[in-house]
Amino acid sequence: MVGVIGSSAGWMPILAAGGILFAGSVTVQAADLGGDCCADLEERIADLEATTVRKGSRNVSLTVYGKVNQAVMFWDDGQEENAYVVTNDASRTRFGFKGKAKISDDWSAYFKIEIGIRTANSKRSNQFDPIGGEKGALDTRHAEWGLESKTWGKFGVGLQKNITKDITKANLAGTGDVGKYSDAEDYGGGFFLVAKGSPASPDGLQWRRLIARTGSAPGEGDRIDSVTYYTPEWHGFKIGAAWGGDDAGAIGALYENKFGTIEVEAGIAYMQNTSNIDTADFHGCPSNDPTIFGNDADCQGVGGSISILDTHSGLYANFGAGQMWDDNIRFNPIFVGTGVDNTYKFWAAETGIQQQWHPLGKTTIFGQYYKYWGGGITQEVEPNADDPINPFVNEASIFSSEVRYWGAGVMQKIDAAEMKLYGLYRNYDFDLTLIDNTTGVVAASNPLENFQVLMTGAVIYF
After folding, report:
1. Residue 337 maps to a domain
2. Domain for residue 455, yes or no?
3. Is residue 93 part of a domain?
4. Would residue 200 count as lying in a domain?
5. CATH code at 316?
6. DSSP calls for 257-320
7. How many CB atoms neighbour CB 140 within 10 A?
8. Is 427 exposed, middle or buried (0-12, 13-18, 19+ CB in 10 A)?
9. pTM of the predicted model, to two decimals?
10. Is 422 in contact with 456 (CB distance < 8 Å)?
11. Domain tally for the chain?
12. pLDDT under 70 in the chain at which residues?
């Protein structure tokens, strides 16, 4: 039976016959052209090469890389439950360009440009804003160049990771893409604290503000515009130093080694910031606007971590801790004469097992615990008078706070796709003491609900 001409089955013989005739026609024409065909082909290739995007310099290598890390975040603030699709800010979606050029047998030059992407921010989303700011926001993570020498070490200039970045997050198991054990805020830190029996307030206090103002673990650094230096490795040790902007600096040491089946990774760093510009902000050690309290920033911190992995059994453990001192708190009129604590501390741990139980790749099952406690916050993050967590009739400020969480997760690698599937649950609880901005009275906040979050998603590398 002849197929209907409008059907795909009817068109198949006609297309096949047309393809054969077209191929034959091309073959005949090519044969008729004789020697001119090659010249014409070379000319066309030259035209295509001229319009193709290529490296600007043949002397410098170029690598395009990145990752996509998107997830579904289920949350429960004690009064409401919901779910958002977010970028997991533990290791957010990004793309970058990096390259290197050999100068001599000992020296080479390098560069790196990296852009972060957040379609929705797991760290800033809240009960009233599932996006957590501007949708699809881009931010510059790296813009740096440097020189490397086998003899003299590595020098870098620009927006870059320095010795303090990730110093509290040593992790040989690779679960940092899922949720860094030393970072509490990445999992719903933008959500507002909820008083028991009351719904969240859109003018409330985000719980990440309880952690040394920034939400970053005390002693942990950031990428900053800086000049950095790292020594060559010596028996697993490497020393690093950084200077940024107006008198912000850091120094520290890193260590990596293997003893039979035991792998060890560790680091410790000290930072100091007397800078008044944001570009020199060491994250947990903040810069300061001198017009607020009439003085320069005066902050210092120390942080460190260690990770140990037995490659035979798959058992591993991570531990991180840090402390920060912000001496500017004594200049805040709200805290003068109150005996407020100017220190901020944390410790965190993760332990688990990582084994290849099936051909897809290694499976990691792990648990986490985190505790932060600290004194007053100098920046303007006070709860408003109408916030249900506030026991006063006036605006209040944070006099002291504690944040704790415990969590459990699973991560499954898929080696063939350079992919990790994951799920991680965390349960947060908080203690908060406030000071009345008008009267100076200190009291505990109204009782607070726990915050629960489950993040499940995947990260894929390219």
Report:
1. yes
2. yes
3. yes
4. yes
5. 2.40.160.10
6. EEETTEEEEEEEEEEEE---SGGG-BTTB----HHHHSS---EEEEEEEEEEEETTT-EEEEEE
7. 11
8. middle
9. 0.85
10. yes
11. 1
12. 1-39, 44-56, 276-296, 378-381
